[in-house]
Structure formats: C-alpha cells, structure tokens
Design brief:
It is built from 13 helices and eleven strands. It is of the alpha/beta class. The chain has two domains: about 10-105 and about 110-255, Type I PLP-dependent aspartate aminotransferase-like (Major domain) (Aspartate Aminotransferase, domain 2, 3-Layer(aba) Sandwich); about 255-379, Aspartate Aminotransferase, domain 1 (Alpha-Beta Complex). The protein has a four-stranded mixed beta sheet with strand order 1-9-8-5, sandwiched between helices. It has a three-stranded parallel beta sheet with strand order 3-2-4, with helices on one face.
C-alpha cells in the first residue's frame, strides 16, 4: 500500500512551473505590485468565466463575503440567513458586522442549505422577515446549492443573495432559465483562491463577481478604504486589495482550470465505481454529469468514523474532516441561543463525513490504495 496525500499542490504545479515563473517575473519587472494590468485582466477573466458582468479582486474568500455584506449595508440589528455547516467565514463575517447569523439546516444528500427548510423558516418567522438583509447559500464541496427555489424566495421577500462559491468556481447549475455557473446567480458571488481550492493562488486571494454595475463600483471603492478618487472617502471601507503577483499566478492557472476539473471528476468517477464498502455512502452528484467540480470528495461514514481516521493515518492515507463543529455548536456563537439537536443534518454530517484525496494528478494506483485501506479497516 502506497502513501497518498490529501492534496499535492507541488505535483499539480510542476507541469506549469516555468509558465508561473514567467508570469511572476513580469510583475517583478513591472514593479506594479498593487493594482495594475494583471489585476484587471484576472477580474475580467474570472467574471467572463463565471458568467458575471464584473469582477473585483480582494484579499481572500472571507473578505469577498465581508465586503459583499458591507456593500449591502448589513449591520447591527440585521439578520442574515445561511447554513450552519460550512467553513467558519460564512457566519463569521456576519457577526463581525454586528448582524445576527440565522441558520437553516442542510439537505443531507448535498450538504447544501435545504430550500424546503428555508421556505419553512420564512413561513414560521414572519415577524423577523423584515430584518433579513441577506441570504448566503453555500455551494459546498464544489456542487451548487439548489438555487431556483432559493432565488424565488429571495425575490419574493426582496432579499439580496450572496453566493458563497469559495469551493465552487466553475460548478454549474441547471437553472430554469438555462445552465448557470456558481457565482453568477445571486446579487454577488464570492470566490476563494486559497491554495487548496481548484483555482488556488500561492497565498491568500479572493474575488467578488456581480452583474450589478453600481454594486461593483461600490465594492471596488470599499476594498480601498472607500476612496474614490484617492484620499477622498465617500464611505468607510478597508484594505481588501488582491496583490498583482497572486493575480498573475491565477491568470496562468485559470487557463488550466477546466482540465483540472475534468481530472477531479474522473477521480470521483473512479471512486464511485470502486469504493464499494458496506456502510460507506459516496457523495451524490445531483445534477448533470460534469456540473460538480469536486473541490472535495466527501463520504459519509455511519459507524466508527474517527477510528477509520486513525487507521488511515497509520496507513499514510490523506483525509480530512470538513467541518467537525457546526456553527451553532461553536463556543463563539453560543449567544445566538441555539442548542445541539437544532440542526440534526448538519450535526450528523459533522460527525460522520470524511474527505478523501481527489486532486489532479492522483493515480488509479493511489486511489486503489485509498480504497484498500478503507476496505481493510472494515474487514
């Protein structure tokens, strides 16, 4: 049995190493480290790739969410509806602005927010609806949330939608008005370029996309302390600028992104065909083939998940738990008044899911070692 890492960025970048070096050297030679043509080119390319009108490069996926909320004037006393099962930033940015995160449980099949439960919240909490200033669905693990019913609810109540597409650049959704890409369906879409993402920088980075020109302009001002022109501040923003070296790296990688998506999808298909272990539930791609981009391949383990982790660790098989503590059980969110048992699907996912290696460059021999290790544990 061979060692298999959860992710091997070095192997993925090796074939394009010289292309990356040239792009970085161009920035060094230009001495345009803040702003400049690389930023503009990336913003236009990501907006075009995602099917949105405008892109605004920012410092991280977290700040993409934060600045979207700031641009929508979310603040103290406001409510923001989202999922309790995601990376911390999804709810953390809401609390940072003094607003109150309100959670709606996930669909246990996709791990994305459940539109039926969301509709139920609106019908049960009529007195709170006027306080809701934004809705943040998360396209978790690379598969879009069921956006049509979510957008219908948002439109009915006049609520902006911020897509947390941090893990889903390039993922597609079969909307009733045609196939759409993650990030292009809501008021804004937020991407993360953290190195482990399908489109990963060599450090932190993120982007907001939107088709609202006025909102794009506001976000662009907010990322630079609210200044337009320089030294004249119409609003209070922050320093949320994406740097040019990261933009140069991402421009190179964007040209390879669809190829990397196809590799991840092929690896997921291989697991689907060969990971036949009693009790292990494989992830469901609920839309058309090729729509899920598999930032993570997450299985559900009904029994002995943590014991399986110890076994895989001993066998040098990479794995990870995303995310072991739902938001409503986090210490910092106890003031919200939720308790264990309030969101059973999120709690089950937190205690029973496990991510397996699915990155580009993973060989069938390596995948076979992953399957062999899992099967060996249960035997």
């Amino acid at each position: 049995m061979m060692q298999v890492p959860l992710l091997d960025i070095k192997a993925q970048e090796a074939p394009i190493r010289e292309e990356l070096r040239r792009a970085i050297d161009e920035v060094i030679d230009s001495v345009r480290y803040i702003g400049g043509p690389k930023i503009t080119a990336l913003e236009e390319a990501v907006a075009d790739y995602s099917g949105a009108g405008f892109g605004i490069g920012v410092t991280s996926g977290t700040d993409a969410l934060l600045i979207s909320l700031m641009a929508l004037d979310v603040g103290p006393g406001d409510l923001v509806l989202t999922t309790p099962y995601s990376f911390f930033a999804t709810a953390g940015v809401v609390a940072r602005l003094g607003a109150r995160p309100v959670f709606v449980d996930i669909d246990p099949v996709t791990y994305n927010i459940d539109p039926a439960l969301l509709a139920d919240w609106f019908s049960r909490q009529e007195q709170d609806v006027p306080k809701v200033k934004a809705l943040i669905p998360v396209h978790l693990y690379g598969q879009c949330a069921d956006m049509d019913p979510i957008l219908e609810l948002a439109d009915r109540y006049g609520i902006p939608v911020i897509e947390d597409a941090a893990q889903a650049i390039g993922a597609r959704y079969p909307a009733k008005n045609g196939v759409k890409k993650a990030g292009s369906m809501g008021t804004t879409g937020c991407f993360s370029f953290f190195p482990s993402k399908n489109l990963g920088a060599m450090g932190d980075g993120g982007m907001v996309v939107t088709s609202d020109e006025a909102l794009a302009g506001k976000i662009a001002r907010l990322r630079n302390h609210g200044a337009a022109p320089k030294y004249y501040h119409s609003m209070i923003g922050g320093n949320f600028r994406l740097d040019a070296i990261q933009a140069a790296v991402l421009l190179v990688k964007l040209g390879h992104l669809d190829e990397w998506h196809r590799s991840r999808q092929a690896n997921a298909d291989w697991y689907d065909a060969h990971l036949n272990v009693d009790g292990i539930k494989k992830p469901a791609a609920v839309y058309q083939p090729g729509f899920h981009i598999y930032n993570q391949y997450v299985v559900s383990v009904p029994e002995k998940r943590d014991e399986l982790r110890e076994h895989l660790q001993a066998a040098h098989i990479g794995h990870e738990v995303y995310y072991p503590v739902p938001f409503h059980e986090q210490e910092c969110f106890q003031y919200l008044g939720y308790k264990s048992g309030d969101f059973p699907h999120s709690e089950y996912a937190a205690r029973h899911t496990l991510a397996l290696p699915v990155y580009p460059g993973l060989t069938e021999e390596m995948q076979a070692s992953v399957v062999e290790a899992i099967a060996g544990f249960y035997k």
